[in-house]
């Protein structure tokens, strides 16, 4: 149904895609993998006709016999959302913050004249139910949802008109493992039941190995290996393919890590309530734990379980309604002093949402200093932080929109490192990174921890990462800690049924 023939793309004369040739018939799933900047998303945008100004394409991207690279904008508008649906990588930037989620799902139906206002609202409710949001009112706004819930809204929008081709660009990046399993099964069911073709773009090799009929591996704008999934997994003929799979199972060397006995972070009986029309909603219920100097502590659980709410309280961004939080014995609250904030930094889940798009990278990375005062060696500190996360010092002069999703996440990590903090809260810090960059970042974090005695609170949906980088793990469900213990013990012999469910749902890449 969709066929790319020698598709090449240049933006302002710079080659981006080089002779990409792929085919995807109805009822099949093609997994497209490769590191950030390899051209995966640009391949998808070429099919959709959503390329930036200054783009020039050669070759063909055909839907049936129609070359989409030659189609008019009017024709492409008729195809987008109707014949071709797309799930974008960052749900918060793909959703309109001024519209309810129900209205946004219904919008696709109304634009294409597929339903009246009432019919569109009913279909939107059905699609939201189908992606696991049955308990969420359609009148909610995007900011009232967790990252995983927002991604599910994007999926509901993409499948509203039952497109023939669905392009999924990192559709499960923000999802916990149980929700990810449900969404992947939903996508698999759509392909099976409706004959839809699915182009699945992902960094998660375990997901693509489980989902795809064929895998295409991209490097520097080229397809370097393409074939049936079983063949790719068995042979891994190209050196780059082998490097990707080796990085996927990478375990950073944490042998030099020294954990002190004194607690650095202490959370005692923390309670966080949100006001609602029906009364207070308890998002965090009497949570207690300690984090020692030099220790890595994992926090896992489904979207909406209270992880991000607890994180905001730990960072002193939101007040508690009960209990206490202390960093090295000093109370953490929205009123805490600048020096305490310098010692506590964070990498947020959504790198684009935490950046001011009008600021250059140099200003974004140096942002923590606006509270503590600008150091005399600011330029050198910025260059050092960018190099540490695999970027070039010249990137300091660019804007966030000039980077891929994974590169933006690296900028966010550089911003957290620049003040040389004692505790870093990593909220899905590597979720948007490809496996090779993720391996380097995890090695970097392990090295910094060994050198400086850093402590990490590692919040992640990726259980394989948590298992490889943490000393202890907390399992959170419905605002409470239901299991706690050494990481190896929790993963090999989980006691709580919920923990067993999480571990069973996590995809595993066979050796």
Automatic annotation (TrEMBL):
Query: A Pfam family in this protein?
Result: oligo_HPY
Q: Name one GO molecular function term.
A: ATP binding
UniProt-listed Gene3D superfamilies = P-loop containing nucleotide triphosphate hydrolases
Location within or outside the cell: Cell inner membrane
| A single GO cellular-component term on record | plasma membrane
Alphabetical list of PROSITE patterns matching this protein: ABC_TRANSPORTER_1, ABC_TRANSPORTER_2
Q: Which NCBIfam families match?
A: PRK10419.1 (NF007739), PRK11308.1 (NF008453)
Family membership: Belongs to the ABC transporter superfamily.
Report the protein name in the record. Peptide/nickel transport system ATP-binding protein
The scientific name of the source species is: Vannielia litorea
Taxon lineage: Bacteria, Pseudomonadati, Pseudomonadota, Alphaproteobacteria, Rhodobacterales
